[in-house]
């Protein structure tokens, strides 16, 4: 009888530890070109950004948008053929609800089809979360590539 009770507790403890949720810290950015623009469409978990930037729900929507956009622009650096590009905000929306709510930000930069080299430095949330990973899906001029950025790998060059 004692063995059955011990076996039950062992199975219960094992079951409990294997069903715990694992927290994932990730942002996704899709890069594509339209006409004379390079578009960067980000999806980042709202709660991660709010916690990292210490944003309170009592702040105005305009103040939140401004602070988050400023942070993204400073953490996501673009160079085309060795020249820094200024990113322009095109869209800022919240999607989803509760814990899975994301902030969707669309930024753009001027782009020429003659561009040969793209440099991307992506440090979004690395200064706040050690486990953060940023994925960039690059689809420009027939060049498709998925780039992964981690705290120890923040810069990538692409030839197009």
What's the short story on this structure?
By secondary structure, this protein is an alpha+beta fold. The protein has one domain.
Structure description:
The chain has 160 residues and is an alpha+beta fold. It has one domain (24-159). Helix content is 25%, strand content 42%. The chain contains 3 helices and 10 strands, in the order H-E-E-H-H-E-E-E-E-E-E-E-E. It has helices at residues 2-18, 46-53, 61-75; strands spanning 26-34, 37-45, 76-80, 83-84, 88-95, 102-110, 117-122, 133-140, 143-149, 155-159. It has a 6-stranded mixed beta sheet with strand order 5-6-2-1-8-9. Strands 4-3-7-10 form a 4-stranded antiparallel beta sheet. Strand 5 (88-95) and strand 6 form a beta hairpin. The radius of gyration is 21 Å and the shape is globular. The termini are far apart. The relative contact order is 0.20. The model is unreliable at 2-13 and 15-22 (pLDDT under 50).
How far do the termini sit from each other?
70 Å
Mean pLDDT: 87
Structural class: alpha+beta
Q: Strands of the biggest beta sheet: in what spatial order?
A: 5-6-2-1-8-9
Strand content: 35-45%
Largest sheet: 6 strands, mixed
List the secondary-structure elements in sequence, H or E: HEEHHEEEEEEEE
Number of domains: 1
Shape verdict: globular
Number of strands: 10
Roughly how much helix do the residues carry, as a percent range? Answer: 25-40%
What's the Cα radius of gyration?
A: 21 Å
Low-confidence stretches: 2-13, 15-22
List the total number of helices.
3
């Amino acid at each position: 009888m004692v063995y059955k009770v011990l076996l039950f507790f062992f199975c219960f403890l094992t079951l409990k530890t294997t069903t715990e949720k694992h927290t994932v810290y990730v942002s996704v950015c899709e890069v594509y070109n339209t006409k004379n623009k390079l578009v960067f469409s980000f999806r980042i978990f709202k709660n991660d950004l709010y916690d990292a930037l210490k944003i309170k729900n009592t702040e105005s929507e305009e103040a939140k948008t401004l602070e988050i956009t400023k942070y993204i622009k400073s953490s996501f650096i673009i160079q085309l053929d060795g020249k820094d590009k200024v990113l322009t905000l095109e869209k800022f929306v919240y999607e989803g609800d509760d814990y899975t709510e994301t902030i969707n930000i669309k930024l753009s930069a001027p782009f020429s089809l003659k561009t040969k080299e793209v440099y991307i430095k992506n440090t979004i949330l690395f200064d706040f979360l050690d486990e953060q990973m940023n994925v960039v899906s690059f689809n420009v001029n027939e060049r498709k590539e998925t780039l992964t950025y981690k705290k120890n790998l923040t810069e990538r060059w692409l030839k197009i």
